[in-house]
DNA sequence: TGGCAAGTTTGACCTGAGTCAATGTTTCTG
DNA sequence: CAGAAACATTGACTCAGGTCAAACTTGCCA
């Protein structure tokens, strides 16, 4: 969610990251955060592993290096709704809060770059720039949540799926993965169930819609975790969005 | 949404507010904001009036003194989803952004206490405390949006209505309106249609659910804009929430 | 290398909430 | 105070997406 540096200022390397070829390790690219170097550590989780349960103490903040994680909320009878998605360069943790509000789960293999919460908070108070940046990021996050409200409240199952694929395609494009004109390949780091929890659907409906779109030639399913869009603009039209939320890729 | 002062530090008055008896005028109670006194102005809107349209330039930030406003998002075919609700003491506006992202409408008669955006932003850069407070408020807002995601994605029509009534009852309690034990009266500053747009339902479903609950003795409808809950805890149980989101009132 | 578990697809059926339409009730306004 | 406009209720009907159940893939690991 929270991305500690502007994407525009991406620098080449982060020499002691376990993954040298990683896309982005936001933490390491921020000059202010260099001062926390000594308290930095790395964590690795495998798909399906829970990182923190809602209500548990949360003693670190982190940045996603590779993989994907989700924040979920559960009702007593087990109904589950994903309320946040963490992709590479996203930030995990809420400064000033010592317990987690949501359950955080790795939905694919995941690498985190972590700082202990206390020194991070101290640094934040000392460097107004960092607080301003965090505010900006939180506001972006809030805007994303508001688009998500529209998706959950008013879109049809098909529009939900299309919106999600458009979102993922844009996200990959924004992180610099250039695609051949026309066809776009998307990595889907989610099971059908997790996808359903994201979209407020059942996993059966997700499967039916995805295979329906395949039958109509809008996309190809390559294995379970890869989708190839035949035509981005057609998918965008299908999503119900007007398209000015981002560039046409 | 954004509440510029801690509710716990509420001070008595705000002498040049048009509404002397108002509940809270957050702006006036913040010491930092006293420095913006000269650029402060007031605005009054009547129910149904639109304050800003999405995409329009937004030259001020404001605090709600009385009444209610909504942020809404619309799809091309007219489907509408409310994505934010502004109640007394909430903050309107996004520092750093010059155009409005969402349409803001007064859903009841409304009084705003406004500052021009530029001087407000300057002050924010100069006073880290204000930026930190704004960050904290935005994070609370984000948490609220996430509860809303669960509501839209996973709750039934009845649970949605119950959740909303519980939310309003708590909100009124938090703002200091003590209620007789047992029965709780709630002001409903929304039409059935606005309520439907908040909950991701149609206005017919809202009407049916509300009258259904009335028939079952869970609440009384006094006119169109007032609801009396017979039993808060029963309503809470109906909402599907586990109840630790706030005090039992 | 084969067997099992996790994940996925597909089918048949059902139901909660949407749609369309008519009627009732307030509340403005001239 | 009448008439209209806005808002709300109610009914009949439909259908998108949920539920339950069975079969099919895939990949893991023993």
From TrEMBL, chains A, B:
<dbReference type="InterPro" id="IPR018335">
    <property type="entry name" value="Tscrpt_reg_HTH_Crp-type_CS"/>
</dbReference>
<dbReference type="InterPro" id="IPR018490">
    <property type="entry name" value="cNMP-bd_dom_sf"/>
</dbReference>
<keyword id="KW-0238">DNA-binding</keyword>
<dbReference type="GO" id="GO:0005829">
    <property type="term" value="C:cytosol"/>
</dbReference>
<keyword id="KW-0804">Transcription</keyword>
<dbReference type="InterPro" id="IPR014710">
    <property type="entry name" value="RmlC-like_jellyroll"/>
</dbReference>
<dbReference type="Pfam" id="PF00027">
    <property type="entry name" value="cNMP_binding"/>
</dbReference>
<dbReference type="InterPro" id="IPR036388">
    <property type="entry name" value="WH-like_DNA-bd_sf"/>
</dbReference>
<dbReference type="InterPro" id="IPR012318">
    <property type="entry name" value="HTH_CRP"/>
</dbReference>
<dbReference type="Pfam" id="PF13545">
    <property type="entry name" value="HTH_Crp_2"/>
</dbReference>
<dbReference type="InterPro" id="IPR036390">
    <property type="entry name" value="WH_DNA-bd_sf"/>
</dbReference>
<dbReference type="GO" id="GO:0003700">
    <property type="term" value="F:DNA-binding transcription factor activity"/>
</dbReference>
<feature type="domain" description="Cyclic nucleotide-binding">
    <location>
        <begin position="24"/>
        <end position="141"/>
    </location>
</feature>
<feature type="domain" description="HTH crp-type">
    <location>
        <begin position="155"/>
        <end position="233"/>
    </location>
</feature>
<keyword id="KW-0805">Transcription regulation</keyword>
<dbReference type="GO" id="GO:0003677">
    <property type="term" value="F:DNA binding"/>
</dbReference>
<dbReference type="InterPro" id="IPR050397">
    <property type="entry name" value="Env_Response_Regulators"/>
</dbReference>
<protein>
    <submittedName>
        <fullName>CRP/FNR family transcriptional regulator</fullName>
    </submittedName>
</protein>
<dbReference type="InterPro" id="IPR000595">
    <property type="entry name" value="cNMP-bd_dom"/>
</dbReference>
């Amino acid at each position: 969610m929270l991305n500690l540096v502007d994407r525009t200022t991406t620098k080449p390397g982060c020499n002691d990251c376990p993954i040298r070829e990683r896309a982005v390790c936001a933490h390491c690219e921020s000059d202010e955060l260099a001062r926390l170097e000594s308290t930095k550590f790395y964590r690795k989780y495998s798909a399906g592993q829970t990182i923190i349960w809602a209500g548990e103490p949360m003693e670190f903040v982190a940045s996603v290096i590779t993989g994907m994680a989700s924040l979920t909320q559960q009702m007593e009878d087990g109904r589950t709704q994903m309320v946040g998605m963490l992709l590479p360069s996203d930030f995990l943790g809420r400064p000033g809060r010592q317990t987690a509000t949501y359950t955080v789960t790795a939905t694919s293999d995941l690498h985190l770059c972590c700082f202990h919460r206390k020194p991070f908070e101290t640094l934040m108070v000392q460097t107004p720039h960092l607080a301003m940046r965090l505010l900006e990021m939180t506001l972006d996050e809030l805007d994303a949540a508001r688009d998500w409200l529209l998706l959950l409240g008013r879109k049809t199952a098909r529009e939900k799926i299309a919106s999600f694929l458009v979102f993922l395609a844009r996200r990959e494009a924004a992180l610099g993965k250039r695609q051949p004109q026309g066809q776009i390949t998307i990595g889907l780091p989610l099971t059908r169930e997790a996808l359903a929890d994201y979209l407020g659907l059942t996993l059966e409906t997700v499967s039916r819609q995805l295979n329906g779109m395949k039958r109509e030639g809008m996309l190809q399913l390559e294995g379970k975790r890869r989708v190839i869009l035949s035509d981005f603009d057609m998918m965008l039209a299908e999503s119900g969005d007007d398209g000015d939320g981002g560039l046409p890729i």
